[in-house]
């Protein structure tokens, strides 16, 4: 078995969380290396593109969060084997990463600039993506986003939806999902109650 080491910030959520969840749910052994945000300037020097997460597979260091999540999803049995269902899974993963990128572009802004940037997201981009995601959920059966079962697409959706509704993002209303895509809100709450996910967060977001 390959030796795996996942490197990311020491907080729940973020781009490494779907991979952490997948390996936890699938019982895949890995080293969960977490570092303080204040140490990022040093850690990034050791990474291929000066960013995290990275995954060491034995001595090979892999970058790009969706590639990492897809790989561990396959190890965990949480990635579709059917090519079309895999395509649907990947489509959702890409759209969710769009949300990450759009939100990420607002970080570093302050005051009126931050409010203006976030207000623009709340008015346009976020509702568009959330309604599209709700449509994908409904058109694929209403319980999961692809393959009629839990996949890494659901794990990534759960992490991002949880973040958007946390109230921790200034100028992003915590009831935004409930307002513009209520079925997504119910979906997020149902995922939170799945035993493997609930146990993970009961343990403080660790395996």
Uncertain runs are: none
End-to-end gap: 19 Å
What average pLDDT do the residues reach? 96
What is the helix/strand order?
EHEHEEHHHHHHH
Outline the biggest β-sheet: 4 strands, mixed
Number of DSSP-assigned strands = 4
Q: What structural class should be given to the helix and strand makeup?
A: alpha+beta
Report helical residue fraction.
55-70%
Percent strand equals 5-15%
Question: How do the strands of the widest beta sheet line up side by side?
Answer: 2-1-3-4
What's the quick description here?
It contains nine helices and four strands, in the order E-H-E-H-E-E-H-H-H-H-H-H-H.
Fold topology:
Blueprint: E1 4-9, H1 17-26, E2 31-35, H2 40-43, E3 54-57, E4 60-63, H3 65-76, H4 83-104, H5 111-139, H6 152-164, H7 176-180, H8 182-193, H9 195-202
Walk me through what this model shows.
Helices cover 56% and strands 9% of the residues. It has helices spanning 17-26, 40-43, 65-76, 83-104, 111-139, 152-164, 176-180, 182-193, 195-202, and strands at residues 4-9, 31-35, 54-57, 60-63. The chain has a 4-stranded mixed β-sheet, covered by helices on one side. Strand 3 and strand 4 (60-63) form a beta hairpin. The longest helix is centred in the middle third of the chain and has 29 residues, at 111-139. The chain is globular. The two termini are 19 Å apart. The relative contact order is 0.14. The model has no long low-confidence stretch (mean pLDDT 96).
């Amino acid at each position: 078995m390959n030796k795996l080491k996942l490197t990311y910030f020491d907080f729940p959520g973020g781009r490494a969380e779907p991979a952490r969840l997948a390996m936890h749910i699938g019982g895949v052994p890995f080293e969960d290396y977490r570092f303080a945000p204040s140490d990022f300037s040093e850690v990034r020097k050791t990474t291929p593109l000066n960013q995290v997460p990275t995954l060491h597979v034995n001595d090979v260091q892999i970058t790009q969060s969706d590639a990492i999540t897809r790989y561990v999803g396959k190890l965990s049995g949480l990635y579709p084997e059917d090519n079309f269902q895999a395509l649907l899974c990947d489509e959702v993963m890409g759209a969710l990463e769009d949300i990450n990128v759009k939100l990420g572009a607002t970080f570093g802004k302050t005051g009126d600039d931050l409010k203006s940037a976030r207000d623009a997201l709340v008015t346009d981009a976020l509702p568009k993506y959330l309604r599209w995601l709700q449509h994908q959920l409904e058109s694929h059966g209403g319980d999961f986003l692809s393959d009629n079962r839990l996949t890494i697409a659901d794990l990534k959706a759960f992490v991002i939806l949880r973040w958007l509704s946390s109230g921790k993002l200034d100028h992003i209303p915590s009831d935004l999902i409930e307002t513009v895509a209520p079925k997504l809100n119910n979906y997020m709450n149902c995922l939170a109650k799945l035993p493997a996910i609930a146990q993970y967060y009961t343990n403080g977001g660790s395996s």
